Each structure stands twice: as C-alpha cells, then as structure tokens.
C-alpha cells in the first residue's frame, strides 16, 4: 500500500497515517502505545483461517455448511472492521470503512442465502 492509499484509508477513518500527531484530530491517546505490525495482522489471520476452513468444508462436499462458515468469516471481518481502531485492523482496511462494511455484509448475506437454497446432496 503506497502513501496515498494509506492517507485515503486513514482519512476515511478520521485519522491521519503515521505522521505528525499534532495534525491528527483523532490521534492515539498518549497512554496507549502503537500496536506492533504483526499484532495488527491477527484479525486478518483469524478471518483467513475461517475462510480456509469454509473452503475445506465445501471441498468435502458439504455445500450447505461451507458457505455458512465462509459467511460467518465475512461477518467476523465486518465486525473487526466496525469495532477495532484503525491501527489494529491491518489488511482488513482496504477501502473506506463504510465501503468495506457494505461489501463484507452483502457478500455474507448472499452466501447465507446460497447456503439456504443449495440442495442437500445424498450420499
């Protein structure tokens, strides 16, 4: 992610990226330290793990459970994006917050509908 993209994502969250704390109206409070990079990627890793589990379940021919697990992973990503501060979400911050939330929730709802209407395969 280049500097212009970081600035755009940060401005959409109401904060400026790693810069002068004086010009950031919503900067990190003095008592709170900046989160290490590896720790900011933990929510992303959790979402990817849940997505991988859903894909494995689909590959095992469970076409109702798999999309439901993937939808749950997308809703988890939306929850992280909604409630975690900007410096804790890592790669989950792709676009503006409202665009990310709208995209994640829409895809999750579509997958829930898909899981609901998919026929059950008999063995």
UniProtKB/TrEMBL annotation:
Transmembrane domains' residue ranges: 42-62, 68-86, 98-118
Protein name: DUF3017 domain-containing protein
Pfam families with a match to the protein in the record: DUF3017 (PF11222)
Chain intervals for the UniProt region annotation (Disordered): 1-31
Keyword hit for Transmembrane helix: yes
Keyword ATP-binding among UniProt keywords: no
Biased composition (Basic and acidic residues): 1-23
Annotated keywords: Membrane, Transmembrane, Transmembrane helix
Tree of life domain: Bacteria
């Amino acid at each position: 992610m280049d500097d212009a993209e970081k600035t755009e994502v940060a401005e959409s969250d109401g904060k400026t990226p790693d810069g002068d704390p004086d010009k950031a109206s919503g900067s990190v409070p003095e008592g709170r330290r900046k989160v290490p990079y590896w720790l900011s990627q933990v929510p992303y890793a959790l979402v990817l793990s849940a997505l991988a589990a859903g894909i494995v379940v689909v590959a095992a021919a469970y076409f109702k459970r798999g999309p439901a697990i993937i939808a749950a992973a997308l809703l988890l990503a939306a929850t992280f994006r909604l409630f975690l501060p900007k410096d804790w979400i890592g790669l989950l911050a792709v676009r503006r917050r409202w665009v990310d939330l709208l995209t994640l929730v829409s895809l999750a709802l579509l997958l829930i509908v898909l899981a609901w209407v998919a026929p059950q395969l008999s063995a």
